[in-house]
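Reader question, answered in our methods column.
A reader sent in the components of a multi-part assembly and asked whether the whole thing could be modeled at once rather than chain by chain. We filled in our standard form and ran it. Here is what they sent:
COMPLEX SIZE: two components
ENTRIES:
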Amino acid sequence: MKNVIHAKCVKCGKTYEATPNLTNCECGGILDIVYDYDYIKKSLTKEKLKTRPNTMWRYRELLPVEETTPDTPLRVGWSPLYEADRLGELLGVKKLWIKDDGQNPTASLKDRASAMAVAKAKEAGAKIIACSSTGNAASSLAGNAAAAGLRTFIFVPERAPKGKVAQLMTFGANVISVQGNYEETFELSKKAIDKWGWYNRNAAINPYLSEGKKTVSLEIAEQLDWKMPDYLAISVGDGCTIAGVWKGLKDLYAIGFIDRLPRLISAQAEGCHPINRAIAENKPWEPMEENTLADSIAVGVPRNADKALMAIRESNGIVVNVTDEEIMAAQKLLGTTCGVFGEPAGVTGTAGLRKLCEQGVIGKNDTVVSVVTGNGLKDVANAIKFCGEPMKLPNDLDALVAEIDRRGLKTE
Amino acid sequence: MKNVIHAKCVKCGKTYEATPNLTNCECGGILDIVYDYDYIKKSLTKEKLKTRPNTMWRYRELLPVEETTPDTPLRVGWSPLYEADRLGELLGVKKLWIKDDGQNPTASLKDRASAMAVAKAKEAGAKIIACSSTGNAASSLAGNAAAAGLRTFIFVPERAPKGKVAQLMTFGANVISVQGNYEETFELSKKAIDKWGWYNRNAAINPYLSEGKKTVSLEIAEQLDWKMPDYLAISVGDGCTIAGVWKGLKDLYAIGFIDRLPRLISAQAEGCHPINRAIAENKPWEPMEENTLADSIAVGVPRNADKALMAIRESNGIVVNVTDEEIMAAQKLLGTTCGVFGEPAGVTGTAGLRKLCEQGVIGKNDTVVSVVTGNGLKDVANAIKFCGEPMKLPNDLDALVAEIDRRGLKTE
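And here is the structure of the entire assembly that came back:
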């Protein structure tokens, strides 16, 4: 890879050759891919991008893949960035955009990481990719691998919801339901990966995955014609996504495509916010309970805390925690004002933004992008609990008129 | 609209000025929009399309909207067309493409019709759109209208699944759950629309909706660089979609963008196939029971039968009926070979294609596009029933080795 210098441990600084099978540093720290920005500056121009495919692979010069590695088959990335004028006005900001990353093949931002895993597995000559997860990482891996003709072994804890298992089975994954908790599931996956040498799609140890995720901020910048907002709000679970977002922004700054960096807004659930607590108290992070319905960010022991904390601090970021009620209110707000249906974890960034607006931290002079990271169809059960009841009426126009009057609904 | 001549009844031939609020002909027949192809030929070129937005609105010259009518806000259309080489080989055809129209904002092809309804409602100066539906028409209307700042009144029968109602409520629709069957629901919606003059999004009487749907075949043609396949397979319910698909193809032929027309494959469920029965027996269509799990095409009384039957006949089309088991097998086949997760009705076209391949009707000299019309996340319950069980194991590598052996799974 002419554009990559090496991989470097974010903890001890040790460097490694960027081979496809890289895992953590021997010190236990996670690795970061270091690019040759001088080389990239010479080979990539804004003009060139205009003719590229509408997928994350339009940014190949900024991605850690060989020039000969093919684009992965599913259309991952280039999700829509909506001007959300009505919502922006409601919140009281100068300008607001919503990046709807639920509009990805398996309906979450995780498709970006899984597509990268598939590309690197192909480079490694692997035929099988494995991971342990019950959520969006698993379904995105299963879908992207199936499309590319790779097989998958996916380990899920026995409590995994049937719907999610069904999605994995439909994509043809070999699904192992482990009788035990998530830790035991992870252990069995590790033993199996060691035994059979499968390619490991695990954001905790695979340094390429956040490089896939960073394409979301590359896109935001390009879709805004390289004029960056003041803030970028996103939900945070294990930290890999916000770290990737920041990496993408720094890449663009380094090659001179953007001239300023937005401040990150890290939104976590009130019931599980180890990363935000570490920032707020300026201390190392410590595990927390996982008390939130936003399952995709219910991560008490974040795997990429180091990269995430660095990203938030470097950006002079803001942290904000929101209750489950605030999360579900944001889901409805995005639905009613933008026609965007996000899963609870997916709308947590917007919930956090709203709270900061109410607190006066962010206001009428500020421009903001809020990323929705997953589709609401992934978790209809919670939407049902919070969305309210429809009008229940007989086939009788008078009854309808009366009910509409009672509710004070506008009929014109 | 300089590109539209008038609207013409498909039954009696009477013509009407193409005003935004058009409904059925006074004879009861459905209207068809007639274009001025000479005008369109002069204003639209293939080259021009290359710089257009990646939405259905790239084809404005072929759409019945005023030049000043703005694009609707959500990113509807320009869904991916995948080369499905592995699936094509399995089925034994020369070349197969899958158009994944579940990759739309509210996850179905119906977004194309609802975006058109929103555009026409704006032209009509309406602030409220109404429809009666429990399915994709309702959710796509609610989402597209919310994004455009229009309000909706949506009538659903009381048996409507809670998840679907939740989606509507999240988009801020005024949802009326009618104590009665679908017919009574439709009646109350009609009375309310008459009373308050709301814009009517009902594919049975609004001639613009199939014009929105036709963008799916405009896209297929452009994505194939205007080289048409031998066949185009699609599931058929009320007939509006296949009629739209055919209209789009004829448009392109009329303006010289394509030089041949594919034959349509109309796939219906064995348990509900009034349109296919009419073709097979060469008789007028008659109502049928609705015995299929593919809810979006369980239409015993098709509302657009006339247009659909004409389309199938004109294209020298093929009809094929599939059982629910064949539908669910196609769902898994698309998942495992293409990484595409479609809802049961969405994959029925592929199920039909598979059956025709097995029967030798379609084979190794044929090229085919199969359209997946909706996302599998819309109906996870049926996927759960049919996808099979995962391996259930303790955290024990030996047990995993034994189970993998027993199942004969390849581990490399």
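What stands out: The mean pLDDT of chain B is 96. The radius of gyration of chain B is 21 Å.
Send us your own complexes using the same form.
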